[in-house]
Amino acid sequence: MTIPNAVLDIVRPSAHVAEVWLNRPDVRNAFNAELIAALTSTFAALSAEPDLRVIVLGARGKAFCAGADLNWMRAMADYSWAQNRADAQKLADMLWTLDQCPVPIVGRVQGDCYAGGMGLAAICDVLVASDNVTFCLSEARLGLLPATISPYVLRALGTQASRRYMVTAERFSAAEAHSHGLVHVLCSPAQLDGQVAALVTTLVANGPLASRACKLLVRDVSGAPIDDDLRADTARRIADIRASDEGREGLQSFLQKRPPSWLAAPTAT
Prior knowledge:
Elements: E1 2-4, E2 8-14, E3 17-22, H1 33-47, E4 54-59, H2 70-76, H3 81-99, E5 105-109, E6 112-114, H4 116-123, E7 126-130, E8 134-136, H5 150-157, H6 159-168, E9 171-173, H7 174-180, E10 185-187, H8 192-205, H9 208-221, H10 228-243, H11 245-255
Helix pairs in contact: 1-3, 4-5, 5-6
């Protein structure tokens, strides 16, 4: 099922899979207020779906996302400080909503991925990019800075690479992004959809609650001191999931050499 939207195209191949496509190809899927609001509300809704196992985030047209829309930027040029603050907060809240989504997100990147588009790419749990993609943290060229996307870019790209690309605003290749860890799977444009489909199949086959728990585990444990509290917390988490219905089913299906119950054919929406 496809749900058209003026700025997003939402496709539902099954109850377990959602595809969210940026749908402003005429402006290289650049951000404006409408797109930011649509992404916020869409991911808030998808986060609340208990049967959803994977979200694909992609973009229609030749580019993934070119950053901010020029008309939107022209309007901002006349904003007061308070108006700029309120506008930036909406972007920050959108990025936070996507980052806090409990469902694993697979990013599909083609063409240009600039500025705010890099924020979207950095939020994805698995990022697949074609080898002709160009990345750029271009804000400094305009006398600006990538403030709202910085927490996610720093986490995904690394501190040293972020220092370089934020202050220089250089373009860098998909191969360079891959070497820094931002891109997980690098492929030719012809292979892009196949690589994404393979990852979707892999994620759907995993325990649904376990996948969500793994995503939360990485977020909570990353950077935390390895102390008594962390050791107790991680022991509690594994005990919780072992004792859960899904954990028991997963272990029993493995021992009995049969598929787990969550691999039953999904119902189309």
